[in-house]
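Entry 12.
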Amino acid sequence: MIKAATNQSQGMLLFKLTHRQSFAIGTLKVKEIVPYTPLTAIPHSHPTVLGAANLRGDTLPVIDMAKAVGYPPLTKEELKSSYIIITDCRRMLVGFLVRGIDRITECNWHNIDAPPSSLGKNVFVTGVTNVDNKLVQLLDVELLLSKVFPDDPDSLHPILTDMEREVLRPLKILLVDDSAVARRQLSQALDSISIPYFIATNGHDALEMLKHAAGAGAPFDILVSDIEMPGLDGYELAFEVQNTPQLSHAYIILHTSLSSEISVSQAHQVGAHEALTKFEANELIHAMLRGAEKTNSVATA
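Predicted 3D structure (tokens):
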């Protein structure tokens, strides 16, 4: 089954930011793991950026991940035994320096829970799970990167004509993302052009909202969903929508922080109409306009 196949390649990379606590990110974001290498200073960079590394012809910034999320930074003595996790996220290659690598493990993303209140205000954690009876915290890499490399304000505010705005305004739009920063970006983009929308923070809630709206005779016209979500991910959500007759009316736009042709290809396999590497507001809005065109053509057929 297609929806099962799309989930098989997404494991978790477990690593250490402190000497005791294990953290993780999804393996789809990871390109490579390398031992620490000397870095070149980057003038006027963010305090958590230690410098730049040149790896296989690519020059990329390296962030002390522990410091970035509020833990003690790595000492000079610790650098020798540290590792750099190279990620491909938000259309950029970035290295994250960590104290140690545990391993890559298979993961049932349906078993990842919301972070408990005992974690306090650690906003960089999007979920928790247990591996070998130990708590593992799943980090929100997008949020971390948005703090270190803030988006260009111009990329967050779409430009469209009054006629285009009126095409979108009557449509019922659902935005789905487990990342707080991504939800804020999506909301700001639509708020800036006065387009109403609904929000879900995970795939399960989104599917229930879609079913409830369809049952009430007011189905959603456009679904904009992240791909890499714990629980019901974007691939599975798209598959369920396309294979449920009362929901298949929706125009599905999947978006991902992964700069990967594979993600885009899989998105089309499960029935999504479009797949975008997030986040660029004008790209998103024009995808929605294409959805509006399709929705209107079906309604008038």
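Annotation: The longest strand covers residues 49-55. The CA atoms of residues 71 and 169 lie 44 Å apart.
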